[in-house]
Amino acid sequence: MQADITLPSVNIPQVYRIDNSVLPMLASMQHNGMPVDVARVRVLGEQFQKEIDQLRFKIQPHAWAGFNPASPDQVSELLFGKLHLKPGKMTAGGARFTTDDKTLERLKHDHDVVPLLQQFRGVAILKGTFVDGILSSVTPAQRIHTHLNHAAV
After folding, report:
1. What is the separation of C-alpha 153 from the centre of its chain, rounded to a whole number of angstroms?
2. Is CB count within 10 Å lower at the N or C end of the chain?
3. Mean pLDDT to the nearest integer, 99-123
4. Contact 138/36 with Cβ under 8 angstroms?
5. Is there a contact between 67 and 74 (Cβ–Cβ < 8 Å)?
6. In degrees to the nearest 10, what's the CA dihedral of 82, 84, 85, 89?
7. What are phi and psi of 47, to 5 degrees?
8. Contacts of 124 (CB under 8 A, 6+ apart)
């Protein structure tokens, strides 16, 4: 049995004209890069680091010396071993109970440390992805050069 497929009507010359008018602009953006206020990004990084340190300090009394809230294994041991919270599913390898965002959301009212762990993860992701990621990609001219993917519909 063959399915009836109807493709939308496309005005190829019009699409070609639009694409050709956009491509030089995209090429220029890639070549020139985007300016970055490195000083401001560094200040944000310092603010995020300060918040991360404060959250570590608040989490510490619920855990043990040397506890690393960035370690899924240690978070699992804390929540389900030490605090005896109700675990959910196991990780894919079955080595420990999962501590993913969905699990922490489910447990956030069960113990005061869970919202702190959620905040810690959120701020750590912001710092790692945006601040550290941007600073590692900035050129000496304080610009980021990206690769823009252009696709016509």
Report:
1. 28
2. N
3. 97
4. yes
5. yes
6. 90
7. -65, -45
8. 48, 52, 70
User: In the numeric block, which tokens belong to residue 123?
Assistant: 């701020």
Strand-strand pairing, 143-144 and 34-35:
antiparallel
Contact residues for 11 (Cβ-Cβ < 8 A; gap 6+): none
What ranges in 33-152 are assigned the alpha helix state H? 38-59, 72-76, 101-107, 113-126, 133-137
For residue 121, how many other CB atoms are within 10 A of its CB? 19
- Residue 86 corresponds to which tokens in the numbers above? 């109700």
Q: Report whether pLDDT(121) > 80.
A: yes
The pair of three-digit structure tokens given for residue 84, joined into one six-digit string: 């005896």
Structure tokens at 135: 């600073």
> pLDDT digits over 45-83, tens only?
999 999 999 999 999 999 999 999 999 999 999 999 999
